[in-house]
Amino acid sequence: MPTHVLVPYNGTPLSKDALRYACAEFGSATITTLFVVDKATDDTAAIGWGDHPGLWEEWLEERKSHAQELFAEAETIAEEYDISIQTGVAVGPVAPMIVEAAEEYGADLIVVGAHGQSRLEELLLGDVARRLVRRSPIPVTTIRESTE
């Protein structure tokens, strides 16, 4: 049985499902939700941060504030299972930052949502869950969204 579970969390229904699963199955473990700020995949990011470093710092602080709002939602979900959770924010490419955070927090399991994509969509779009399953040194449990 895992003692520390890391759940990447971005407030999507799939990340909420992953958190609910972790709470239901591993409620006696420490559960940490992680929000990753990635300028390459975040729709609110702008191009040309190097030209305006103050804007980068302002944007980063806004994303960290957004993470706190998401963590309030996550804590509400955890309270449904009568447990408390830890939270963390990482900055960088999503999959590598999740693996790094798992190591930093001492997690022995990652629970992540995985879209039920067709093979073509998976090849074209990439998939954080798929990358985690391939590269994580610890077990990864995927919570799948159906395409139906």
Describe this structure in words.
The protein is 47% helix and 22% strand. It has 148 residues and is an alpha/beta fold. It has a five-stranded parallel sheet with strand order 3-2-1-4-5, sandwiched between helices. Helix 3 crosses helix 5. The longest helix has 28 residues. The protein is globular, with a radius of gyration of 16 Å.
What keyword list fits this structure?
five-stranded parallel β-sheet, 148 residues, globular, Rossmann fold, alpha/beta
Summary?
With 148 residues, this protein is of the alpha/beta class.
Can you count the beta strands?
5
**Average predicted local confidence, pLDDT:** 87
Instruction: Provide a count of the helices.
Output: 5
Under CATH, the topology is which?
Answer: Rossmann fold
Q: Order of SSEs, N→C?
A: EHEHEHEHHE
Based on the coordinates given, report the CATH architecture. 3-Layer(aba) Sandwich
Using the alpha-carbon principal axes, give the shape.
globular
The major beta sheet can be summarized as: 5 strands, parallel
Beta-strand percentage?
15-25%
Say which CATH homologous superfamily is assigned.
HUPs
Report how far apart the termini are. 32 Å
Q: Can you tell me the number of structural domains?
A: 1
Report strand order across the widest sheet.
3-2-1-4-5
Coarse structural class: alpha/beta
List the helices and strands and how they pair.
Blueprint: E1 4-8, H1 13-26, E2 30-37, H2 53-80, E3 86-91, H3 94-105, E4 109-115, H4 119-125, H5 128-135, E5 140-145
Parallel strand pairs: 1-2, 1-4, 2-3, 4-5
Helix pairs in contact: 3-5
